[in-house]
Design a protein that fits this description.
Blueprint (H helix, E strand, L loop, with lengths): L16 E9 L2 E10 L4 E6 L8 H11 L3 E11 L8 E2 L1 H18 L5 H5 L5 E2 L6 H67 L5 H18 L2 H19 L5 H21 L3 H21 L4
Parallel strand pairs: 3-4
Antiparallel strand pairs: 1-2, 2-4, 5-6
């Protein structure tokens, strides 16, 4: 009897997850929001504030090192800190030249000079230069923390998926064992039915040969040993994938296709209502697994 698969300690990782990390710095507040959904490959969509555009290539490399598959949206929010002391740097030469010209224009036109308008002139008030390197480094550190949290979320979802797949595989093996146990009875029933047909005719040599031919054909159509063996083999491969440390999404997806092929063949060969029901139940289990596998990295 095949032993059921225990709750696996699996490296299976879901492609769905979300993480948010925030850091308050003297220069302002950084917030990373990272979310992923299933996708055939890794597709990264970034939203960065203007001051952090230079980080794009480095951010993409950091993400690619942590995430292998999935559509990933990453957004960095930056809120500058309110200064505790106001500092105003003025371009004195430009201001003097501008004031002189505006006074001259005011005398000619009879108008007045508005000091605020003068300060709004481009280049009169200069923002103090800031060293963005520490802030960018902090953004990278915070991104790594967000990706770690995302991985933990995806690992948790993957662990639940692994348990579900293991349970479905156990039920699938139970159905395989049920079908296998019925085969001798079905074969004997077919043999008895053909004997009844033979009894309706004279027991000539020709009829005996025909009986043997029909019996062989009927048993060949009924032969599902290969399908059952392949189903057991596919279950073993699923168990191997669940126990491994490598991304298994594509392999599991292929195995779901193979499962479905064998279940379809089993159903088409069925000469027994119970076997037909078992084949249908197998397809239900396989479809449940296939839906979950679509979301595995």
């Amino acid at each position: 009897m095949t032993q059921p698969l225990k709750t696996p300690i699996s490296a299976l990782r879901s492609m769905t997850g979300f993480a948010r990390r925030e850091a308050a710095l003297p220069a302002g507040t950084l917030i990373w929001e990272v979310r992923t959904v299933n996708h055939r490959y890794l597709e990264v969509s970034l939203r960065l504030p203007e001051d952090f555009r230079a980080l794009e290539a480095e951010v993409r490399a950091t993400i690619a090192a942590q995430v292998r598959r999935g559509k990933l949206d990453a957004t960095l929010h930056y809120r500058t800190a309110t200064p505790t002391t106001a500092t105003l740097e003025v371009n004195e030469p430009l201001l003097e030249a501008l004031v002189e010209r505006t006074r001259d224009i005011a005398q000619r036109t009879g108008g007045t000079v508005n000091a605020v308008d003068v300060l709004r002139w481009p280049g009169v008030v200069r923002e103090p230069e800031r060293d963005g390197t520490p802030l960018q480094a902090a953004a990278q550190t915070l991104l790594k923390e967000a990706l770690q949290a995302l991985a933990a979320h995806r690992d948790s979802e993957g662990a639940r998926t692994a348990v579900m797949l293991a349970e479905r595989c156990d039920k699938l093996l139970e159905l395989v064992a049920e079908v296998a146990s019925r085969i001798p009875e079905i074969r004997e029933r077919i043999r008895a039915k053909l004997h009844e047909r033979l009894a309706q005719f004279a027991a000539t040599e020709t009829n005996r040969e025909r009986f043997e031919q029909e019996l062989v054909l009927a048993l060949q159509k009924l032969d599902v040993d290969e399908e059952l063996d392949r189903l057991r083999s596919h279950v073993a491969e699923v168990r191997k994938a669940l126990a491994g440390n490598e991304p298994a999404g594509r392999r599991l997806d292929f195995l779901m296709q193979e499962f479905n092929r064998e279940a379809n063949t089993l159903g088409s060969k069925s000469q027994d209502p119970a076997t037909t029901r078992a084949a249908v139940d197998m397809k239900v289990l396989i479809e449940q697994m296939r839906e979950q596998v679509q979301n595995v990295e």
